[in-house]
From TrEMBL:
One of its GO terms (molecular function) is L-ascorbic acid binding. Its cofactor is L-ascorbate. Gene3D superfamilies: q2cbj1_9rhob like domain. Residues 93-202 form the Fe2OG dioxygenase domain. Signal peptide: none annotated. PANTHER family: PROLYL 4-HYDROXYLASE ALPHA SUBUNIT, TRANSMEMBRANE PROLYL 4-HYDROXYLASE. It comes from the Bacteria. The keyword Metal-binding applies. It holds the Pfam family 2OG-FeII_Oxy_3. The keyword Protein transport does not apply. SMART domains: P4Hc (SM00702). This is Fe2OG dioxygenase domain-containing protein.
Length: 205
């Protein structure tokens, strides 16, 4: 699967990191109108974000989240298809699109998107549904300060840019997890940051 996705991805996005980590940035994956509509859909549905893995730190992930579904708006289906087409992955392997909203002071501290193998969270969230493989994240706005996405072990930091996608594989080509994908969504200092995230599994979800 990694190889198929890599081939398709070479058509549009810019490579940001090379083996063993596959990390891409794709400017203007969505246009400004699409982003604005997705922000409005998110604001109408948000709830406090959840954590897959337990942590004693109550300030670890302080954002809000919303699951965006096709029945919320036809644009959700269109974006789902555009992402699946770009990735060359069967849409059945994808989780529903989830939006994240960060208000001033909110962040998601350094974490990985894969489930720790052998852990309770893996049994609960992975298990039969499979491990998380690719993350396809799109910034919906840039009129904010702070909120950078930092890949702390890769020394790569991205500022939110409206419509820009960040795409990375949380796994290595042999299917094992890649700790180099550790990332931190920095605190927002001014304004509000919105993103949408699509996670793929390593088998049909
Ligand atoms: O908001 C970001 O920049 C990153 C979000 C993220 O890492 C996640 O939702 O898993
Ligand atoms: Fe993440």
């Amino acid at each position: 699967m990694s190889r198929i996705a890599l081939t398709r991805l070479e058509a549009g996005p810019q490579i940001q990191a090379v083996q063993p980590t596959q990390l891409y940035c794709w400017p203007q994956f969505l246009d400004g109108d699409e982003c604005e509509q997705l922000v409005a859909l998110t604001d109408a549905k948000v709830r406090p974000s959840e954590l897959a893995s337990p942590t004693a730190d109550k300030a670890f992930r302080t954002s809000s989240s919303a699951d965006l579904e096709r029945r919320d708006h036809p644009l959700v289906g269109i974006v789902n298809q555009r992402i699946a087409g770009a990735m060359g992955i069967d849409p059945a392997w994808g989780e529903p699109i989830q939006a994240q909203r960060y208000q001033p002071g909110q962040e998601f501290k350094a974490h990985t998107d894969y489930f720790e193998p052998g852990s309770v969270e893996y049994e609960h969230h992975g298990g039969r549904r499979g491990q998380r493989s690719w993350t396809f994240m799109i910034y919906l706005n840039q009129d904010c300060e702070g909120g950078e996405t930092e890949f702390v072990r890769l020394d790569k930091t991205f500022r939110p840019v409206t419509g820009m996608a960040l795409i990375w594989n949380n796994l290595l080509t042999d299917g094992s997890v890649n700790p180099q994908t550790l990332h931190h969504a920095h605190k927002i200092t001014v304004g509000v940051k919105h993103v949408i995230t699509k996670w793929y599994r390593d088998r049909p979800y």
